[in-house]
Amino acid sequence: MEESPEPRAGEQAGPPAAPTREPVVLTTERLVLRAPRESDIDAIDAACQDPEIQRWTVVPSPYKRTDAEYFVSDLALNGWRTGENLVWCVFERESGALVGTQGLMLRAGRTDVAEIGWWATKEFRGRGYTVEAATAVARYGLAELGLRRLEWLAYVGNDGSRAVASKVGFRFEGTLRAYAEQRGQFHDSWIASLLPGDLAD
């Protein structure tokens, strides 16, 4: 990987660029997390028909198969290529079924702060899979990538996501008014953080 050239005299250096990253596979006791593939498009499309996923995330609504294609071939692929948006599909090890997604998105112009996000397929909710996957992603971000701070945000009222964040160890910090955009509207949002020292042994 080439380093960015030094600014000339009188020029100001821009924000640090995120390093290019090869997709990383994470495993837990029950799950495998890997980058999305073309073979996952049908399962992603089916999962995102769920009104709850459309209600609490920024996935398009209505959701079309072309949206799943874009997620796999553009968003996730370029996210890993640039190192700015690391996306995993989460699979049950025993069955190979898609149980959700996880993502780490670096803050604009920063390489030490990222936002974590996820959604879970309705058929596999209530089994602790999202907590298990999010814990693995949080450890990867803080321990392997050296992030200084990991943030979780959710629209106010998303109690399921808040419960997951709490079980992972995120510390609730407050409510941001009219903060997070979803399809042209801004919603009040909860925010919590996880620091390297918060990780359980």
Descriptive overview:
- The chain is α+β, with helices and mostly antiparallel strands.
- It has a domain at 26-150: Gcn5-related N-acetyltransferase (GNAT) (Aminopeptidase), CATH 3.40.630.
- 28% of the residues lie in helices and 30% in strands.
- It is built from five helices and eight strands.
- The protein has helices at 41-47, 51-56, 65-82, 129-144, 159-168; strands at 26-27, 31-34, 85-92, 98-106, 113-120, 149-155, 171-182, 185-194.
- Strands 1-2-3-4-5-6-8-7 form an eight-stranded mixed sheet, with helices on both faces.
- Helix 1 crosses helix 3 and helix 4 packs across helix 5 (159-168).
- The longest helix is centred in the middle third of the chain and has 18 residues, at 65-82.
Largest sheet report:
8 strands, mixed
Structural class: alpha+beta
Mean pLDDT: 90
Give me the CATH superfamily of the domain at 26-150.
Gcn5-related N-acetyltransferase (GNAT)
Q: Encode the helix/strand succession as letters.
A: EEHHHEEEHEHEE
What is the topology, as strand order, of the major beta sheet? 1-2-3-4-5-6-8-7
Number of strands: 8
N-to-C span:
34 Å
Write the CATH architecture name of the domain at 26-150: 3-Layer(aba) Sandwich
CATH topology descriptor of the domain at 26-150? Aminopeptidase
CATH secondary-structure class of the domain at 26-150 = Alpha Beta
Give a topology summary:
Blueprint: E1 26-27, E2 31-34, H1 41-47, H2 51-56, H3 65-82, E3 85-92, E4 98-106, E5 113-120, H4 129-144, E6 149-155, H5 159-168, E7 171-182, E8 185-194
Parallel strand pairs: 5-6
Antiparallel strand pairs: 1-2, 2-3, 3-4, 4-5, 6-8, 7-8
Helix pairs in contact: 1-3, 4-5
